[in-house]
Input
Amino acid sequence: MGKLLRLNMTDRTATLQDLPDKYRYLGGRGLTSTLVHDEVDPLCHPLGPNNKLVLAPGIVTGTSAPTSARISAGAKSPLTGGIKESNAGSAFAPAVADLGIRAIVVEGQPQEKGWWLAYVTWDGNAPKVEFLPADEYAGQDLYDVFPRLFERFGKVSIAGIGVAGEFLYANSGLCYEDQSGRPARYSGRGGLGAVMGSKGLKFIVVDRKGAPGVPLADKELFEQGRKKLTDALMTHDITKPKGALNTYGTAVLINIMNEAGGLPTRNFASGRFEGAARISGEALFEGNKERLGRELYNHACSPGCIIRCSNTWHRPDGTEHVSCQEYESVWALGANCGIDSLDVTGELIRLCNAYGLDTIEMGCTLAVAMEGGLLNFGDGQKAIELMHEIGKGTPVGRILGSGTATAARVLGVTRAPVVKGQSMPAYEPRAVKGIGMVYATGPMGADHTQGYTIAPEILGVSGKVDQFDRDKAALARGFLEATAFIDSTGHCLFIAFAILDIASGFEGLVEECNGVLGTHWTMEDVGRIGKEILTRERAFNRAAGLTAEHDRMPEFMKLEKLPPHNVVWDVSDMALDSVWEGY
Amino acid sequence: MITVQVKLFATLRRYRPGLKMGQVLAVELPAGATVGQLIRELGLPEEEVRMVFVNGLVRERDHPLADGDEVGIFPPVGGGE
Output
């Protein structure tokens, strides 16, 4: 029987509870969102004692299922004021799963100041928790802190916050270690770092040594599913070894979005960036090749991944600069800021990792600061200086750490590319209507990962649809529902590229889940389960005061024509509301 | 004859050895040539071409090209985080 581990930070006590029966078939996002829905007052202050931070590995996390080491983090978001789920790939996820813990719930709030870490180990029969003082790690660069934690605790996994979380910035992520122990994998979105920081918790350190691992209800069925999904991932052009993701990383999308006229540039003023080729996935590959004297293929961000899309970037002398130059990060801190140098985006990403910031929110905030006159578009050196102000907590730093919407308000910038207070990712909604409908209506605020309609709209995966077509409510709904399910399995969303095109891979996914849980789900259950999760998330948001009027695009997108296609946001509000038809 | 400006992305560059990243190829075609004819003219394996953009719009193989068109050709790519 799985357990819920509650960490009460009011008095620093840990409680191990049998997983209530009603949660037995939930994992990942399904479990975090259900626990937040059931236990958190939607009207609570996100940084007060009544919010809870929930961390849950997915249903198949900890098994040999491929590319399944995802941890979901959930809470009421200090950025959006609604429910938030943000997942990441890290060894932290299977470490928690192996201990038999289905979710960690961080609750309460201490009266006194000070920082703590929760040290979770296996005592032979059950998980054991010790609370240890962590003041010695506060106020510091996570690139310095993570090695000290590994030196002290040995081979462990870490979930924690940087100074951004300590300062309670609305832009602050939860940071986990990658396969080389770098502080580089993030539940970046929605300010979850501040929720952890508000509870005086700096790190959760997990040692899985001796832990029993994840039990399988039907080993044969699980193996059958695992094999089908693995075959799909190994043969699909996007996910196979030395395929597009393994060779060029996610930044392979820079050029294609630029061609499509949908790469937001200089704070969403254009859909084309003249410097796109210089910050593309191809440029990363060529740049590393030139600097290292050999071809460098990408690595896995977490154990058991066969897609392996995570990269490293190297300095001119061949030494490692940073991991990882992801598409979203390179776009946000590159094209969206008018910056065309991978050395500059690399440094800005490194600083986000060092301080504990979400790269998407950060890039959008810097772009708004550029428009607001704090610095010029393209000024990488000044951007780096401002990042250090954020790290130090100066007044300007605190404003920029508060996220794009707040910075825009302070600086008088009307072009604030946000929905529900969260900044948009790297796809221009005026040029790609379906993803805009997902940004507008999704319960997470502007977020591409909750319904990646870019697959059919731009990439020709799962069919092809016209990027400008406005009749996409059903498309958006289908993607939102399927994604809520995938986010619950513990698989990386990138398996979708393969399983949307290869039906046996999708079957394999469902069989894996049945093999772990002993359920009899069919393909038809995927949409139903996704719908149940979304229904709870939407109920939480409604009770928190987020209604259909918040499912809207920023006004400037309806007024300003986006080059090169010269299009405005022209999807009607009625069409947006129809995304939730049947809910 | 018409001339179109072509960019090959990601793995497709390997079919034109020596082609630099971001380099534009000027390709001459008979008037009325289609996207499909361009792909054959370039010697690209049909199955490795996933998306073709002509002046920023996705076009199918039967789309007729015009003089001066800008064409971007991609193999299957994906990503997003």
Observations:
- The longest helix of chain A spans residues 523-543.
- Chain A has a mean pLDDT of 97.
